[in-house]
Amino acid sequence: MPEFEKFRGNGCPELHLKHFCHKMVVYPTDDKFRIAMFQESLAESALHWYYTKDVRQYATFKELALDFLNYYSFNVEMAPTISALWILKMVPQGGHQTGSRRWLRKLSPL
């Protein structure tokens, strides 16, 4: 049985699926097996999400994976990029308040 890094509902769901598939490469490619094993890679709210699903509705692991990605897509959409964080970097002489004001100005048009 492989040891999985647990997805708890935060973080990147795409990266989690890549890790899961990488660990499962040495096991049978049977979709039902992969669907059943997917719960072993989940914890907390993500495991709750899995348990609320009727996994018998999924004919393939790809269907489950797409449903998982769709449900946790907000994690990917909201994640700031390194370049966005660099642009918002506080200037040394401005301190925390200046950086916060610039961050709020950036967000106000949204």
In whole angstroms, the N-to-C terminal distance is 46 Å
Tally of distinct domains: 2
For the sheet with most strands, the description reads: none
State the shape: elongated
Seen as an oligomer or otherwise, the chain set is: single chain
**What fraction of residues sit in β-strands?**
under 5%
General description of the model:
- By secondary structure, this protein is mostly helical.
- Helices cover 58% and strands 0% of the residues.
- The protein is built from seven helices and no strands.
- It has helices spanning 13-24, 31-38, 44-51, 61-71, 73-78, 82-87, 95-107.
- The protein is elongated.
Quick synopsis:
It contains 7 helices and no strands. It is an all-alpha fold and 110 residues long.
Name the descriptors.
elongated, 7 helices, 0% strand
Topology:
Elements lengths: L12 H12 L6 H8 L5 H8 L9 H11 L1 H6 L3 H6 L7 H13 L3
